[in-house]
Amino acid sequence: MKTLLVAEYRDGKILASSSELINFAAQLGAESAMVLVGSETTLPHYQGKLYLADSTKIGEFNPSQHKQLILEVIEKEQPSMVVLPHSSYGWDLAPRIALALKAAQISEVVEIKDGHLVVPSCNAKLRRRVKATTNISVVTLQGGAFTPAEDPDGTPEVIKVEVAADGDIQFAGYEEAETGGVDLSKADIIVSAGRGIGKPENLAMIENLAKALKGEYGASRPVVDAEWADPSRQVGTTGQTVTPKLYVACGISGAIQHLAGMKKSEFVLAINTDKDAPIGEIADVLAVADLKQLVPILTEKLNAL
Amino acid sequence: MKLLVCIKQVPDMESKFKVNAAGNWYEETDLAWRMNEYDEYAVEQAVQLKQQVGEADLTVLCIGSDRVKETMKKALAMGCDRGAHIADDASHLKDPYTIASLIAAYAKDKDFDLIFTGMQSQDRGSGQVGVLVAEMLGIPSLTTLVEFSYADGTINAKRELEGGIKAKVSCTTPALVTCQLGLNTPRYPTLPNIMKAKKKELISTPVDDLNPQPSLLEVLQVAPPEKKGGGLILEGDPADLADQLIQILKEKTTALA
Ligand SMILES: Cc1cc2nc3c(=O)[nH]c(=O)nc-3n(C[C@H](O)[C@H](O)[C@H](O)COP(=O)(O)OP(=O)(O)OC[C@H]3O[C@@H](n4cnc5c(N)ncnc54)[C@H](O)[C@@H]3O)c2cc1C
Ligand SMILES: Nc1ncnc2c1ncn2[C@@H]1O[C@H](COP(=O)(O)O)[C@@H](O)[C@H]1O
């Protein structure tokens, strides 16, 4: 079996997910080649063929160019699986490649089990083992699911490729993340509010518990999107990555994008009405309760200590 | 302007999920159903665009059993003009490729200027259908949008990338966009609009009329994730729970030291 790994590159840098692609191919026991729109000055550590298109010529991600380039490399390499990260890059690009090849796409693979690929469903409450019925398949990998224990080694054998610059989508630059506000990455104790708080007024409850524990308060994305909390409070892939000694998740279901930002916390306490909430998978303690009842009592008792 | 928005009905993610008897999906009985969250953003954006341009006709499309009409009515009450229901009791067994082939077959000769979809469905979460539809129709697609604006046949949008960075992109219509969390705040249908929605056109078409393409994926097994064990689950009276939690925090963490 042969895989073609499509590494992701942004603004002059190859992204760390490339090592996950390499590790995935290794776990499958598959041969691999890699394709990258990037630069010779920052090559990935990789032992194998690397088809490299010059990003200073191509510019940042443009779907039709990347699609065309990858299809040309597929033509040369004849892989039976094309692997991308399940990120903004893979979401956009993978279905385009899949349709061009009329290949099955398997999205967000979290595990290889008995040679089959496993994907999550229903906010990680179920898992499906799936199989492509086509000779070639396109696969995207959940971020973090295939992080190698050690960074890969090696120097790739670079094969330069070119692609005509064209496409029906124009890229007009990046907008950087807003900075300022609180730096949660330094907090020892974080109490976070999720959509389970129900209404903005209840955020005060979470703030009070954070105060009683002498920590900061954080939030899941829906709470920030609803403008109940400042964007700097958001924990997760599109927010901050935190590593506190204690993380208290109140009314947070535990979606993968939230977990990615807090799973390295030393101790996780979750308060949730749903005993099966996926946050339970990583929580040291899951208190099955209505936060509106438990959080005020807990705060009161802590203040009385 | 002709607009289409594709929505899916999904179970409330706080439900308890059981694997069905065939072992290929979840058991559909005893679930509360709602509009896929990402599709609410899609509907809202489509309705806002319709209000912006004035002259527009907005169709909401959904593939599924008769049960999904309830969710379609919500989209009609939010401001869609008509509903295209593709009646299919087995839609949950169809893969994203087949679902996309149905939407593309429906849209093929209808000259939609803009098609809105969610970036992913909450139950299946494949994030494929939108882009596949655009590729099948041969129109550009902009994905994972957190900002959208339209003027004179051009879409200017921002895509969300990881780490809070956004990419500014644009294309001309006809096009398809996939909608991400935070794009807008979906409106709640008002009572008068719910009443009005009852009179709006909602036509069901049998799925076979659209010549569904065979699935490219096979589901071998569906199961809950293996419990990693570890975590302690506490239940009971809030006051008792609070005492237990304080005890645990004292013993297992330095938080109260
Ligand atoms: C590209 C992308 C990036 C993303 N980035 C992030 C990110 O950086 N951070 C992030 O958080 N999310 C992110 N998300 C969103 C993520 O997928 C989830 O939608 C989000 O984390 C869910 O937030 P939540 O847990 O607060 O809400 P929900 O999933 O709605 O969960 C609410 C929880 O509250 C519980 N609950 C309800 N009422 C009560 C009560 N009274 N007492 C106790 N519990 C209660 C429910 O049982 C449920 O478990 C991203 C998504 C995408 C697609
Ligand atoms: N059964 C369906 N009927 C209509 N639209 C759908 C259906 N399934 C998926 N979609 C659309 O495709 C998007 C992506 O779905 P998915 O590829 O399943 O993650 C959803 O947000 C919907 O907009």
TrEMBL record, chain A:
Which residues are noted in the entry as FAD-binding?
Answer: 195, 220-221, 234-238, 251-258, 272
A Gene Ontology biological process term: fatty acid beta-oxidation using acyl-CoA dehydrogenase
Task: Name the cofactor(s).
Answer: FAD
Asked if Flavoprotein is a keyword of the record, the answer is yes
Query: What InterPro entries does the annotation carry?
Result: DHS-like_NAD/FAD-binding_dom (IPR029035), ETF_a/b_N (IPR014730), ETF_a/FixB (IPR001308), ETF_asu_C (IPR014731), ETF_asu_C_CS (IPR018206), Rossmann-like_a/b/a_fold (IPR014729)
* Pfam families, per database record: ETF, ETF_alpha
Ordered alphabetically, the record's keywords are: Electron transport, FAD, Flavoprotein, Transport
Q: Name one GO molecular function term.
A: electron transfer activity
Write down how the cofactor binds this protein: Binds 1 FAD per dimer.
**Any stretches that span the bilayer, and where are they?**
none
- Superkingdom to which the source organism belongs: Bacteria
User: In this protein, which residues make up the domain named Electron transfer flavoprotein alpha/beta-subunit N-terminal?
Assistant: 3-171
What SMART domains does the database record attribute to this sequence?
Answer: ETF
UniProt record similarity statement: Belongs to the ETF alpha-subunit/FixB family.
**What protein name is recorded for this chain?**
Electron transfer flavoprotein alpha subunit apoprotein
Automatic annotation (TrEMBL), chain B:
- The residues covered by the Electron transfer flavoprotein alpha/beta-subunit N-terminal domain are 23-214
Spell out the CDD domains in the cross-references. ETF_beta
Gene3D superfamilies recorded for this chain?
HUPs (3.40.50.620)
Q: Which InterPro entries match?
A: ETF_a/b_N, ETF_b, ETF_beta_N, Rossmann-like_a/b/a_fold
Which keywords appear in this protein's UniProt record, sorted alphabetically? Electron transport, Transport
GO MF annotation list: electron transfer activity
UniProt key word rRNA-binding? no
Entry similarity comment: Belongs to the ETF beta-subunit/FixA family.
Q: What is this protein called?
A: Electron transfer flavoprotein subunit beta
Q: What is the lineage of its organism?
A: Bacteria, Pseudomonadati, Thermodesulfobacteriota, Desulfuromonadia, Desulfuromonadales
